[in-house]
Each structure stands twice: as C-alpha cells, then as structure tokens.
Design goal:
The protein is an alpha+beta fold. 25% of the residues lie in helices and 42% in strands.
C-alpha cells in the first residue's frame, strides 16, 4: 500500500463514514505487522434490552476489524472483502466503557483469510472470542 501506520488508520476510519461502523462509533486505533485493533463504545446504542452489550454489536465489531485487516494485509487495490463465516463465543458482559477488538491473521491466502479476534474491555478482560473467515473478491 505504501502508506504509513497513521495514513492506514486514517483511511480505515474514513471508510467507516455512512456505514454500520459509523453508526456503532467503531474507530480503528492500531495496526501492527499481523494485527488490526479497533474500539467501540459500550452504551445504550449497543445494549440489548437488559442493559448489556448486544452480542450482535460485538460480532459487527469483529467482522469490521477482520475485514479491514484482510484488505490492508492483502495490499491490493481492486478487491472487495466479504465475511463468509463468523463464530463468536461471548464470555463476559459489559454495560459501559469501551471494548477493543484485536484481529490477528492466522491464514493469509490470496482468496480466503482466517482471523482470530479477541474482544476485551478496558481492563483487558475477555468479552468475546471470534473466528472470522473472509473471502477476497477480485473486481
């Protein structure tokens, strides 16, 4: 891609405009050689009726960060990334604060990618563990 870390994060955050990621206030905050991290606030906008983080919001966060990672690490312009399988285990509930999703690539194929995504609270306690498979579509 030829961009530095700050430019990549800015590009990821700009891609969120007018999408579900903007609705959920997902913000990409870090990138390393094999990980991408994003955060999401936990408040009434992402609660289920009993006042804790909705599992669907966690899954949306996980798919967002894993898909962005696939796009970044493939380093190709004319591709679209789609999540084709996702599995989440919700371990701990959270009512407020932030959750942080750190996606680590396990398999970086040209067509499919496998991601391990840990979602933690501000105290680094595991909230959800997600496995995501992405598909690369050539345009």
């Amino acid at each position: 891609m030829g961009l530095n870390k700050a430019e990549i994060l800015k590009k990821c955050n700009n891609m969120c405009k007018n999408t579900l990621m903007e609705t959920l206030n997902i913000e990409f905050i870090n990138i390393s050689e094999d990980t991408v991290t994003a955060k999401m606030p936990v408040n009434s906008r992402v609660h289920q009726p009993d006042g804790v983080l909705h599992g669907g919001a966690s899954v949306a966060l996980a798919e967002s960060v894993g898909s962005a990672g696939a796009f970044i690490f493939l380093n190709e312009k004319d591709v679209a990334i789609r999540g084709i399988e996702i599995s989440a285990n919700h371990i701990k509930s959270i009512k407020e604060g932030f959750v942080y999703a750190k996606a680590k690539i396990l398999h970086k194929g040209r067509t499919t990618q496998l991601w391990h995504i840990a979602i933690e609270n501000e105290n680094e306690e595991l909230i959800s563990m997600v496995k995501l498979t992405t598909l690369t579509l050539r345009r």
